[in-house]
Amino acid sequence: MRNYVITIARGFGSGGKYIGTRLSEELGIPCYDRQLVTMASDESGIDESLFVESDEKLRGKYIASFLRKMPGSTVLEPREKGFTSDVNLFNIMAELIRSLAKTESCIIIGKCADDILKDYDNVISLYIEAPRAACVESIMNRMHVSERRAHQLIHSTDTYRAKYYNFYSGGKNWTNPVNYDMTLNSARIGREQCVKVIKDYIKTRFPEYETVIK
Length: 214
Hints:
The chain is an alpha/beta fold. It contains nine helices and five strands; from the N terminus they run βαβαααβαβααβαα.
């Protein structure tokens, strides 16, 4: 059997990471999120802190309107100018994601992975969202912050994720359902049911896995 990959884009507080982790447990395949930062640092030799600083974020100098075009996709050599630039850090991460998609079954959280792998036929791309009230409640409970702070965190996180996606996808809208195989409202059916729905979809999309995905 060939390998398959599930990418998960998610609104902050919607439970996308939780759903990815549960899928990982149910399917017996790895779930990559923060681990990708460490792996990209190890492979490139670039300090991990630089990948952390640019993880799903655009730093100020890249938000100017004249930069709103698809960046070059070539990974630079260490001796070249711009080796530690945000664009090159993204390209290093993208190459890592492509390598994983070619070699193993896995789940990838965020990182613009759905767009990076848009031409791969072994990929299922998902977007997880929930109404603001449900996201606020989730953040308050998980991070032990006030309602006001939860609203602030959701707004700021979703804003920088949207800008990051727009820039590196060449102008696409992060929340556009056309970008994904499926969009799920985790508050409407519950996070555990989301896991079940996704497993059923995998069996429909890749019938060869029907007998091994319970």
